[in-house]
Design a protein that fits this description.
alpha/beta, 13% strand, globular, binds flavin-adenine dinucleotide
Length: 306
Amino acid sequence: MITRNALIWLSRQEGLKDLATRFGYFKKLTTRFVAGDTLNDTIPRIRQFNAENCTASFDHLNEAVGSADEAEQEVAEYLNILAKIDEERIRSNVSIKLTQFGLALDPELAYRNARRVVEEAHRRGNFVRVDMEDSSATQATIDIFKRLRSEFDLNTVGIVLQSYLYRTFADAQELINLPARIRICKGAYNEPAEVAFPDKKDVDANYVKVMQLLLSSGIYHGVATHDPKMIDATIDFATREGIGKEKYEFQMLYGVRRDLQHQLARNGFNMRIYVPYGKHWYPYFMRRLAERPANIWFVLKNLAKG
Ligand SMILES: Cc1cc2nc3c(=O)[nH]c(=O)nc-3n(C[C@H](O)[C@H](O)[C@H](O)COP(=O)(O)OP(=O)(O)OC[C@H]3O[C@@H](n4cnc5c(N)ncnc54)[C@H](O)[C@@H]3O)c2cc1C
């Protein structure tokens, strides 16, 4: 059986990324997890989420860009998204990746590019979430986030932490003191035992510990998970501590556990859907397969249907 590690390894193969992107046939399979090719394809989906009492976060798919020009195109796309959100009056913020803005080429370039998007979000009263990538980028991402946070207010820029990393509880303590808005997730990359808990039960235990720290801070954070155990632990803790539903939000990925998304929104919880779009879907799509290898059957069934 193909393993999670093998799928994550495949997600990083640039050659396959190009092949898969060129093949229209493969693209059809991605529609469960990817909302569309273009921003305009994606708007009706977000409108639908808003009608179902869910907010959204746009993610333009492209990570680890290869040139400053490509990073510049990403900035332009995000400025366009922010304008479109206002024009279409939809309830959504944006999620960015720093490698999309050139982190691997030059951290200063990534900072300047991210700053332009954050500044525009500030001007429009919107919010930018800086996604967290693999552990080689963790410190640089936190450093750039702290610079941005020193220039813009709490409600303009936030960050993501991953409960599989040993360092995360300490990072969460430091960042809530800024203060900062944090999305806690388990983590989607393949990390060695030197930096991350190898056992799922430890990742889950750390998730609960960080979630409790975040909720107790009084800052509005995002609890990103599809795991009913993590969701129950969050609701139980909030109820015990008298923390109202309006003080935090749940977040889930487009196409994953739609039933649970609806149920939480219907029960009055703040629910945000992370909505990726764009033609560079390959690494994102492969990470979704890795999270739940049973998804491969879904893909194979659709391949067989043609
Ligand atoms: C809004 C949001 C933003 C995120 N941002 C980041 C980020 O910036 N950096 C990062 O490293 N990771 C990010 N992730 C991914 C995250 O780290 C996990 O890889 C992912 O959410 C799976 O973990 P889980 O908490 O759902 O729990 P798991 O224990 O992995 O899954 C629990 C249950 O959820 C369901 N499920 C989970 N994943 C899938 C899937 N792909 N397909 C179908 N069912 C599934 C299954 O029923 C599974 O049993 C984000 C996740 C969300 C929801």
